[in-house]
Write a structure and sequence with these properties.
The protein has 10 helices and 11 strands. By secondary structure, the protein is an alpha/beta fold. The strands form 3 sheets. A 6-stranded mixed sheet has the order 5-4-3-6-7-10, with helices on both faces.
């Protein structure tokens, strides 16, 4: 919790001073009673004493004053609220290496499932687009709030070809900029790029990430797979048959892309970790931190204590204070 006017809290020093004044006042009352009658006769003069009830109203009043001072300092707390009109492009690598089964049941199937969970968890006001990229990028669905259209686009992801990461970032930027042009104010935008390898063709992905940074669109990269990942590919020439090829992920290049764009990098070695990464990204990109004032809550609590103190004083002693 933070405060909009923290210097007001210095007034809390008045509360101990009020307590000291009250204690002295009570001692003065005791001295006055002793002067009126000898201690031996006090029990017969005042056979019933209020005990703790004498102090309860003042305790309530002191607490109410302290809470009112805190309320005047404008207490605030940070809460996560849905980002209205945000646009997120899910760019998924569908190169041939995404057929590897080191991430069960395969890298691409795990990516598709995690992306679907991401879409389900993100607030409904967020527009989400779907892009597939291998040797070239293809926008399967422009950013939209319609979840069924997004799910249908995710179902069309299929593996083949190489990896053109830089071209994918550029195409995603183009699509998100179209969204910005259609709105009155540019909505917050981001790219979530999942890949399992280094870019093999096309534009330099770091340069594309720097272009994204200038457009204030961060790229969040996810490296999927393990160093032991393999796929079966046709043997070169006319030998026929297939051979095993290792397809380890390249987290270093993806981390460079994230840093160049102002985003973050994540690594996932299995489907459970990928699910956690996408859940975190959904919470991070679908909401934003905002400060909410709690002045009314504190003031309401102080009012309850004031009324309670007044009620105790009137009920027990027939006076307000």
């Amino acid at each position: 919790m933070s405060f909009g006017s923290p210097l007001v809290l210095l007034a809390l020093l008045l509360v101990p001073a009020l307590v000291v004044w009250y204690v002295r006042a009570q001692r003065g009352r005791q001295r006055a009673a002793a002067a009126f009658a000898s201690p031996a006769l006090l029990a017969s003069v005042a056979p019933r004493r209020p005990g703790w009830r004498r102090h309860a109203p003042m305790v309530a009043f002191a607490l109410a004053i302290a809470i009112l001072i805190v309320a005047a300092a404008k207490p605030e707390r940070t809460v996560a609220v849905p980002v209205e009109r945000a646009a997120i492009m899910l760019a998924t690598d569908v190169s041939g290496s995404m057929q590897a089964t080191d991430v069960k049941p395969s890298r691409l199937v795990a990516a598709r499932r995690a992306a679907r969970r991401f879409v389900e968890d993100v607030p409904s006001g967020v527009n989400i687009g779907v892009m597939a990229f291998n040797g070239r990028p293809r926008v399967l669905q422009s950013p939209t709030p319609e979840r069924e259209d997004i799910f249908a686009a995710l179902a069309r992801l299929a593996p083949s070809g190489g990896t053109a990461t830089g071209e994918a970032i550029t195409a995603a930027l183009r699509s998100l900029r179209t969204q910005r042009a259609n709105g009155r104010r540019p909505p917050p935008s981001a790219i979530v790029l999942l890949s399992d390898g280094a870019s093999t063709k096309g534009k330099d992905p770091v340069q594309a990430a720097q272009e994204a940074r200038r457009a204030r669109i961060a790229v969040y990269t996810v490296a999927l797979g393990t160093p032991e990942g393999t796929i079966q590919v046709p043997r070169p020439g006319s030998a026929g048959g297939t051979e095993t090829r290792r397809v380890p992920p390249d987290p270093a290049s993806l981390e460079q892309i994230a840093q160049a764009s102002g985003g973050e990098h994540f690594a996932a070695i299995d489907s459970a970790e990928l699910k956690r990464v996408y859940e975190r990204l959904g919470s991070q990109l679908g909401t934003e931190k905002r400060r909410r004032q709690m002045t009314a809550s504190f003031a309401g609590g102080a009012l309850v204590l004031l009324l309670a103190g007044a009620g105790m004083s009137l009920g027990w002693f027939g006076r307000l204070v």
